[in-house]
Amino acid sequence: MIKIYVVIGVSGSGKTTIGKLLADRLEIPFQDADDFHPESNKAKMARGEALGDNDREPWLQALAEALKRLYEKGGGVLACSALKEQYREQLCAQLPEGISGKPMQPQWIVLHGEKQLIATRLKNRGNHFFDPLLLESQWDTWEFPNYGWFMDIQRTTESLVNEFLALSHKKASLGVIGLGTMGQGLARNLGRNQYSLALFNRSTPTEQQVAVRCVSSFPELTHARPFDDLFSFIEALEKPRKILLMVSAGAAVDELIRQLQPRLETGDVLLECGNSHFEETAERVRELESHGIHFLGVGVSGGAQGALEGPAIMPGGSKKGYDVVEHILLDMAARDPQGRPCCAYVGPEGAGHFVKMVHNGIEYAEMQLLAECYGLVRFGAGWSVEEVQKLFMSWLETAERSYLLEITIDILGFKDPEDANTLLLDQIADQASQKGTGGWSTTAALNLGQPFGIISESVMARYLSAQKELRVELSKSVPRSVAGIEIDHEQLFNTYQSVRRLNHAQGFALIQKAAQTFGWAIDPAVLARIWSAGCIIRSTFMERLESMLRENSEDLLQQHAILAILTKNDSDFRNLVSQTLQHGLPMPVSSAALNYWLGLGQANSAAHLIQAQRDYFGAHGYQRKDDPTGQLFYTLWNSN
Ligand code: 6PG
Q1: Is 622 a residue whose pLDDT tops 80?
Q2: Is 363 tagged catalytic?
Q3: Which atom of ligand 1 sits closest to the CA of residue 436?
Q4: Which atom belonging to ligand 1 lies closest to the Cα atom of 275?
Q5: 330 CA to middle of ligand 1, Å?
Q6: Model pTM?
Q7: Ligand 1 proximity of 275 Cβ (cutoff 6 Å)
Q8: What is the pLDDT of residues 44-71, one digit of tens each?
Q9: Is the distance from CB of 291 to CB of 268 less than 8 angstroms?
Q10: What is the tens place of the pLDDT at every residue in 631-640?
């Protein structure tokens, strides 16, 4: 792999000395950015005048070309102040494109130290055109990068270069397999946290050298070691090996484990971070533990941005494995409003992936609810998109702020890049896809015997949306105008508030039921806490939920604050949903939530008829109200 090193820092920090020594040791060419200044810049600096962006422009242009030449010749070292992020970008502008679509990145070596020490060095440096007084301006201009290899210039040049060369060949503390969007984000997050990384991505006929391109694309990864051979990757890791897998859930995970397992040793830890099914995870935990390998099924939420800036992390599986990697996961995680990491060990077996699956179920219903509110106001009441956006923005000012509401507001203002007069949303086909987690949570609810109508309706609503042809056909046979609905803002807001509470209640109840059934000690307050930042369902409600559950870990529907809102909103909720349905506009999630809420409020239901019917045709038996023993009674309903 071609290596370009750029040693950066303010004038006087020792870039030339360190750069030259490094180039000597690596036997590659060295270049000094000072040699590229036009005479006018040198004279300006000698007069004690600071250079501005305009003065630096032609210099950076010449340096970008020099860097490109070094690259073409197979590598080299450049010493250059590169004070600002913008200058560093200009420097790389002529390097080949990396995986990010931006120019590839050199290995940045960042020199830093006390201002006084640098000032003294500058004073003692004879015959140099730089006026020591300019240090002030350099110091103010310097934007400290959050990437690169940092060298404290208090130490000797020899020791800094020796350490750099030794450590950059040292075994990596952590490996990442799978460098798609999420894997790249997690690797960069780890790079920002100063972990020494080995990166692996398999090569396919269409995708070659992904890891190499990744390393040279992102400044945080320039000291990571790229591999496209799995076994060299494993060899490059310190023991016990810690390997994070971020590949598609399912067969790809099994295939990787099949290849890795014979090369791993007792005590090594695998962290599988995709959206895997919790039962598959439990099986992998069992199987790998029998070989002494600790397997963790780690729920990771937050999308691409979360992976990079800090996701919510839900690890489950081997506790021994968790103890080995806890510090890494805590470093990577988002911070909650109190500054604590959004990560906690959830439980053994597939507990981590179970809660991530339910997180996604709640996410599906929250998304569908926002779509229902938007659809009602835009298509039912005929509001403009701007008006809908304003309405949602007003909700942000309330206690209902959430990440999904925020992104919805952004989407409602986003123009089609192809046509600035059109909303991009209006160009998107109305058929929702899914990768499965919402459906899995519905299946889990069925298996565990839990009411889950809200989330399951959100899954079904996506399936129904996908039946476009049938919808188009039937809309001709049953023409229906849904326009003309009068919206009462408060009723809509109150409905939104109630559905959210019932949705979260069903999700949390399913997790509690699973915890009881499988013997997992899941603290719902901890879950609410780690979901209060980083993840897709983060919201101010989730933050309040944490404090409620910390006081009292009862079911959400036993919480006074939640019940008070549901009771206050009761008639608005009923009126809004029934009025909308009456107008012919579907509200699958809102009406499922309303049915759940109404069902919960019925002390006596019509279910006795079901029991009678079951006994009538199948002699299934029923319990009697007047018999406290709970025994079954049978009746011969029909003598035929
Ligand atoms: C998250 C998301 C993430 C992903 C889902 C979407 O928490 O970061 O849930 O995991 O967006 O896989 O799933 P669907 O494709 O099923 O909507």
Answers
A1: yes
A2: yes
A3: 16
A4: 10
A5: 22
A6: 0.84
A7: yes
A8: 888 888 888 999 999 999 999 999 999 9
A9: no
A10: 999 999 998 7
